[in-house]
Amino acid sequence: MGKELSICEVDKNIAIDFIQKYHYSKVMPSINKHFLGLICNDNLVGCLTLGFGTQPLQTINKLFPGYKTEHYYEIGKMCIQDDMPKNTGSQFISLVKKWMIENTKKLLLYTLADGIVGKIGYVYQASNFYYGGFFWTDVYIGSDGEKIHPRSAKTLLKENAEFLGKEKVFWLTPDFNKIKGIRRIRGKMFRYMLPLYKKEKKILEETGWVKNSYPKNDSLEWREQIEKGKYIKLDEMPKFALDVVNFNYKNVNAHNKKIKGLEFFFNC
Asked: CATH classification of 5-263, choosing from 3.40.50.2300, 3.40.630.30, 3.30.1330.10, 3.40.50.720?
């Protein structure tokens, strides 16, 4: 008997528990609008979140002037059970596209592949997304290996400011990082966009988004800050301890709330 796949919206808590079990990163996006579950023979085998990044309007306006948040969703997290066939990812995306057309008024599906942790976006390439180039971004690696996004470093930034005798700093400084055993790493984020309609497909093609120049493993690159304004190229990807959750604890455990003193658990 073949594997029959379908999707539906699932409970937020069930989705997050599934994602934090199967996704490489337990940290959740801040703006989630829909939690879609991939169902195979009545079992939950995948999850995908639709929502926005931290600057949703700025993101779409930079890519497509005149477009607003009402015109797109961004994939925040996507993961599939390990024992599913290799093509399950592209089948999942196909079902998500159909779901968006039937249930939303969105025109575009946007996503990023996190090159800092070695992700190229092969599932998006296999799903015929258009590629829109990359941008550089920075993260920190704690002394325990935790991957710390700058947004999660508020307590460190406060400590760094006190260390310098300043009121505020916006980035951890190299001298402070050295004392704390923190590394600042720069890597690539790869942009992908899936048009839901022909008009948006034409716009993508006219503005330089492509399908014939996808990045590959040799596109990955990492740099490490050694002093203010100076980075060195690394020979290999830094090692992240993605199961370590200290500075990201609040984000990772935000869905574990108590209602009237009782905890509610959900089982897939």
From this structure: 3.40.630.30
